[in-house]
C-alpha cells in the first residue's frame, strides 16, 4: 500500500497503549482501523517531523488483519492489534537495520529477540524510527535520513539517540515505542519531548542476536506518554535469550504502576560526574528539578541534597563506547560514507579495544560498590536528565569530533554513568521552559530497582498529570494531527 493511498490523517489517538489494547479486546475498534490511523499520521508528519527511517505500510496492515482475525476468535494478548514502533537498531525481519548510517544494508532474515517478544504479545510493528549514526549523539540528524524534529518545536531536536521513537510518541503517531540507551539515549529524548522513558537494568530486555550491546553499556527500553504504558511495553519486551551475556532475575513492573511507593528517602543530586570539560546546569532546568524535589517532600518523602561518589566513572565509559562503535561500524556497507566523527570514534575504539577495554570492564564492580554507597542512606536518586533544554536543529551538525564531544557533554552530563553501572533509571517530565520546551528529571536506583522507580514515577504522574499536555498541533505537523 503506497502512502498516496493512505487515508487522510485523523486527530491524534487519545488512548494510550493500554487503552488501545482494552478497546480492541472490547470490540470498540479494529486493529486495522488503529493501524490505518497510525500510518496516516506517520505519512502526514514525515515531511515535517521525519520520525521514521522505514515505514511498513503493507506489512503492518497485514499484521493488523491477522490480529483482527485472532480477536474475532476470542484471542487475547497484551498488545494484540496495537500499533507500535521500534528504533532502527533492532532487527525486523524483511527490513534493513541501518542504525542511522548511509548505505545499502541488506534486509534481515529474522527479528531481534525484543521484536519477537513484541510480536508474540500481538503488537503491530508499523515501522523503524530514526537514530543518529550508531546512536552516538543527543540529536537525531544525519545525511542518511535528514533531520528528525521535536513535536514541541520543529526548530529544536527531540534529542537522541532514540529521537525518532520519542518524536513518534510525543506527536501521537504511536502510543509507545522501543528505544535504546547507551549514554542516556532513551532518557534524554524523553526529557526533551515530555515523555516517560525507562532505561531498564542491563539484560532486562534481551539484546539478542547480540550477546550484549556496545560492550554492555546499551540497553533497550520503552518511551511512552504514561508510566502505565511504559511499564506495559517494558514487561512485554522483557526476557532473556539463551545467548545473552546478562540475564537478571525477572521482575514485573506493570502491577507496580498502581501501588503506593511508601515513604522514600530521596537524594537530590545536581552535580554531574567529573569530566575534563566545562558544563553548567541551566537555571530553568535546575528550577524544574528542585521543584520536583520539593513536591516529593510535600508528598511525604524524605528529600535531602546528596551526591553519588562517581569517581573515575568516565574512564570506564569511553573504551566501551568507542569499542562498540568500532564493532558496529565494520557492518557498514561503505566505511567511507560514515560521518567523520563516527570514523574517528571507530579508530579510537580500535586503539582502546584491548587493555583499556579490559580495564574499563574490570572497573565496573568497584564503581558499583563506590556509587552504590549512596543507597545505604537513600532509596532513590533524583537528578536532572539533561543540563539544558533541547538545542536547535543543526547546532551540533558541523562540529568536529572533539567539539561535538564537548558540546554533547555540556548538554547531557548526567545520564551516562548509569550505563556504566548497568542500573535502572526513569525519566519523568519535569515541566517546561519559559518558551515552552520540555525538560525532564531522572529517578535513579540500584540494580533491579525498576519496580520501585515505577511506583514513584506513577505517584508523581498522578500528582502532576503530565500526560494531559501535548505538543501544539501546528508544531507537530499539519492541522488535525
From TrEMBL:
Top-level taxon in the UniProt lineage: Bacteria
Gene3D superfamilies associated with the record: Amidase signature (AS) domain
Pfam families attached to this UniProt entry: Amidase
Annotated SUPFAM superfamilies: Amidase signature (AS) enzymes
Database matches in InterPro entries: Amidase, Amidase_CS, Amidase_dom, AS_sf
PROSITE patterns in UniProt: AMIDASES
Family per similarity comment: Belongs to the amidase family.
Protein name, entry field: Amidase
Originating organism: Streptomyces daqingensis
Amino acid at each position: 500500500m503506497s502512502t498516496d493511498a493512505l487515508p487522510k490523517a485523523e486527530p491524534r489517538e487519545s488512548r494510550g497503549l493500554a487503552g488501545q489494547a482494552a478497546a480492541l479486546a472490547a470490540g470498540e475498534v479494529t486493529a486495522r482501523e488503529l493501524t490505518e490511523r497510525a500510518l496516516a499520521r506517520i505519512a502526514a508528519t514525515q515531511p515535517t517531523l521525519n520520525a521514521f527511517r522505514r515505514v511498513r505500510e503493507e506489512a503492518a496492515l497485514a499484521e493488523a488483519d491477522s490480529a483482527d482475525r485472532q480477536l474475532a476468535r476470542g484471542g487475547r494478548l497484551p498488545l494484540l492489534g496495537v500499533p507500535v514502533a521500534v528504533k532502527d537498531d533492532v532487527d525486523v525481519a524483511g527490513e534493513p537495520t541501518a542504525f542511522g548510517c548511509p548505505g545499502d544494508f541488506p534486509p534481515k532474515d529474522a527479528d531481534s529477540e525484543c521484536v519477537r517478544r513484541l510480536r508474540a504479545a500481538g503488537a503491530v510493528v508499523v515501522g523503524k524510527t530514526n537514530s543518529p549514526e550508531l546512536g552516538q549523539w543527543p540529536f537525531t540528524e544525519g545525511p542518511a535520513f535528514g533531520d528528525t524534529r521535536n513535536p514541541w518545536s520543529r526548530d529544536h531536536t527531540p534529542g537522541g539517540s532514540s529521537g525518532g521513537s520519542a518524536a513518534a510518541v510525543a506527536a501521537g503517531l504511536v502510543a509507545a515505542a522501543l528505544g535504546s540507551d547507551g549514554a542516556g539515549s532513551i532518557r534524554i529524548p524523553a526529557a526533551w519531548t515530555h515523555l516517560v522513558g525507562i532505561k531498564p537494568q542491563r539484560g532486562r530486555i534481551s539484546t539478542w542476536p547480540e550477546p550484549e550491546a556496545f560492550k554492555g553499556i546499551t540497553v533497550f527500553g520503552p518511551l511512552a506518554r504514561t508510566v502505565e504504558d511504559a511499564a506495559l511495553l517494558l514487561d512485554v519486551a522483557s526476557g532473556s535469550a539463551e545467548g545473552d551475556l546478562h540475564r537478571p532475575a525477572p521482575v514485573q513492573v506493570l502491577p507496580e504502576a498502581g501501588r503506593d511507593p511508601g515513604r522514600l528517602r530521596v537524594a537530590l543530586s545536581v552535580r554531574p560526574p567529573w569530566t575534563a570539560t566545562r558544563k553548567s546546569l541551566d537555571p530553568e532546568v535546575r528550577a524544574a528539578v528542585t521543584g520536583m524535589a520539593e513536591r516529593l517532600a510535600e508528598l511525604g518523602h524524605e528529600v535531602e541534597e546528596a551526591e553519588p561518589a562517581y569517581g573515575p566513572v568516565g574512564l570506564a565509559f569511553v573504551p566501551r563506547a568507542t569499542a562498540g562503535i568500532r564493532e558496529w561500524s565494520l557492518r557498514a556497507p561503505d566505511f567511507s560514507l560514515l560521518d567523520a566523527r563516527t570514523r574517528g570514534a571507530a579508530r579510537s575504539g580500535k586503539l582502546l579495544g584491548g587493555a583499556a577495554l579490559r580495564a574499563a570492564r574490570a572497573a565496573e564492580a568497584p564503581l558499583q560498590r563506590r556509587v552504590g554507597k549512596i543507597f545505604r542512606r537513600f532509596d532513590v536518586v533524583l537528578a536532572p536528565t539533561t543540563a539544558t533544554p533541547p538545542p536547535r536543529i543543526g547546532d551540533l551538525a558541523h562540529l568536529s569530533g572533539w567539539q561535538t564531544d564537548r558540546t554533547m557533554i555540556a548538554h547531557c552530563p548526567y545520564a551516562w554513568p548509569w550505563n556504566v553501572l548497568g542500573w535502572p533509571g526513569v525519566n519523568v517530565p519535569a515541566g517546561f521552559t519559559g518558551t515552552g520546551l520540555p525538560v525532564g528529571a531522572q529517578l535513579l536506583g540500584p540494580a533491579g530497582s525498576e519496580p520501585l522507580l515505577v511506583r514513584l514515577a506513577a505517584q508523581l504522574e498522578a500528582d502532576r498529570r503530565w500526560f494531559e499536555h501535548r505538543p501544539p498541533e501546528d508544531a507537530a505537523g499539519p492541522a488535525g494531527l
